[in-house]
Amino acid sequence: MNFTASQLIEFCSSLLQGAGVPKADADIVADVLVDTSLEGLDTHGISRLPIYLTRIQNGRINPKAEIKVYKTAPAVANIDGDNGLGQLVGVKAMDVAIELAKEAGVGSVAVKHSNHYGASSYFCKQASAAGMVGLAFTNTPSGIPPWGGKEAYFGTNPIAFGFPGKEQPVVVDMSSSIVARGNIILAAKQGKPIPEGWAIDKDGRPTTDAKAALDGAVLPMAGPKGYAMALAVEAMSGVLSGSAVGKEVGWIYDESTKPVDIGHFFIAMDVSKFMPMNEFLGRMDQMITEIKESPKAAGTDEIFIPGERRFNKAKIRQQEGVPVTDQLLAELNQLAQSVGVKPLG
């Protein structure tokens, strides 16, 4: 079934409120989740809500987090997420980075004691909307091995950039792994195989079995280069923030009751402190035009700018609605019943 973005935001917010999240916070988290689903990133959007709600209910995530901000220098702040929902912590942290950048030109924020925050692209778009270049880093539960190893140590550790643009922001969002672990989680839930080259099993052998891959490790993108990027993101978001590092990072899908203690790092840079915004937008537009007009390789119909396919998908889903699988709808409605919320559909 397909649902409008407004239907899903209202429903997701109601579910979160039913689980004890204050309305203002629930609205923020719901907006992040639905925006992600609108862009077609279904593994990181509303499909994650059932596990968040379950972990709130069993006490592993704090529904009423008191996020604390410690400004340590004109352009620097540390944030304690108080084990709150990652989307909420991320939005609040990027807000702080933006405010610091308005004063100092650049704002850098390290975050500890958070949770899975979904798609990094959301926070970069948040910065772009404020006239900023945005960067977002986060560590994640162990998923990929160091290059040459067979045992997972680093998370899939994404890094994202967002740049203001005339028509739409240019958003670069990529994980250090060959594929986001959410794709493997979704395949395991659906009983589907994964492509060759994505993962190894617990013995270090290539596998197309999604469940075996979750017991083993996802491979880094571009071999040693992906491993190096994962290490850099771990240092930024885990080591520098004072949050968990490597195998210490918890996995929300296991049955532990300990907080997962994920760390993030956000940077906002005020474009107007470097050059007039109109000049920047003009230069970005010129670069994009030159890229789009580049000679095309055989079989290529169009050259896309990073984030463009997501933007196009969001326009389609704004018109046609966001598809929700029967399985996910059943999960959400079961949770709705448990917290006294009117079911969806």
UniProtKB/TrEMBL annotation:
Domain of life of the source: Bacteria
UniProt-recorded Gene Ontology molecular function terms: oxidoreductase activity
Entries under Pfam families matching the protein: Ldh_2 (PF02615)
Keywords: Oxidoreductase
Gene3D superfamilies per UniProt: 1.10.1530.10, Hypothetical oxidoreductase yiak, domain 2
InterPro entries registered for this protein in UniProt: Mal/L-sulf/L-lact_DH-like_ah, Mal/L-sulf/L-lact_DH-like_NADP, Mal/L-sulfo/L-lacto_DH-like_sf, Malate/L-lactate_DH-like
Family: Belongs to the LDH2/MDH2 oxidoreductase family.
Name of this protein: Ldh family oxidoreductase
Organism: Desulforamulus aquiferis
